Amino acid sequence: MHRAIAAWLTERPWHAAVAIAFCGALSQLMLPFTVLACAIPVLSVLRLNARIGAVVAAIGALSAAWIVHSAVASVIAGTFAGIALMFFGPFALALLLKRTGSLNLCFQVTVLAIGVLLTIVHAVLADPIGVWTPLLNQLLDSMEAAGLRIQGDRQALVALWSRSMWGALGALTLASIFGALLLGRWWESLLHAPGAFGTEYRRLRLGVALGVVVTALFVLALATDSPLIASLAWVAFVALAFQGLAAAHRSRAGGRLNRGWLAAIYLLLVVPLSMMVTMFVLAIWGFADNWMRPRQTARL
After folding, report:
1. Could you give the CA distance from residue 191 to residue 30 in angstroms, rounded to a whole number?
2. Where are the domains of the chain?
3. Is the pTM of this model over 0.70?
4. Euclidean distance between the first and final Cα of the chain, in Å?
5. For 57-116, how does the pLDDT look when each residue is reduced to its tens digit (9 = 90+)?
6. Which of 145, 214, 267, 285 has its CA 20 to 30 A from that of 206?
7. CB–CB of 240/175 below 8 Å?
8. DSSP for 178-219?
9. CA 110 to each of CA 85, 106, 122, 247, 252: distance values in angstroms, whole numbers, following the listed order
């Protein structure tokens, strides 16, 4: 089925344009459509060319922005910047992947870029935590108006959520952008080299330099009360989960992990009640894999 989707999207440029206009509109309503929509420019760049990929990404961004503008009375400029990042981020990574052929380099660049963006946000904004307070209060007001009762101290809850929002947003951005790159690359491999994507993904690794940074982040997150460090730790957590999932696929390819266990991991990742626990286990696996696996893995 996915091969047929990829073939249809690349058969004519307008196919990709129509698909991303539809998925881009739905991307602001359901997260799976965000990854699906942002994967289309990746496929267009890898299979066709950069010009078509840029046009497709622009159509998706405009479609998503139009939905947000129509549905929300007052939209902050940062929302449109976020939409542009979601569509043009995977596009830029696709250009890098096409030029270098290294999915692992794209992974490392994505993690580093989001870390840099979070650092800039915390450096530029006078109160990066406080900007979330009115938005979260509006959210809680809407929940109470809908009949949902908020248990506990409301202000304490808002303060707790405000400290976590930048980190959660950075982690979600990493998952969406890199997830879109993975999906687009998989589609492209189905058309010209089935199986090549699996080999590339199983090699995913943060590396020594980023591994040292990630380790230091977790230590500092436990020892300090810095909002920036806490936000960066969220991103590191998701990055390690990606590597842990790659390690699981490598174990499956090497015969050390049963197919049923791999299927169970994916099932647990989509069930809300088990998602965070599963990601935590994958992150631990990814952390161990990053330090214990040789730089050049002879057998995948």
Report:
1. 27
2. 1-192, 203-300
3. yes
4. 27
5. 999 999 988 888 776 655 566 788 888 999 999 999 999 999 999 999 999 999 999 999
6. 267
7. no
8. HHHHHHHHHHHHHHH-TTHHHHHHHT---HHHHHHHHHHHHH
9. 12, 6, 19, 19, 26
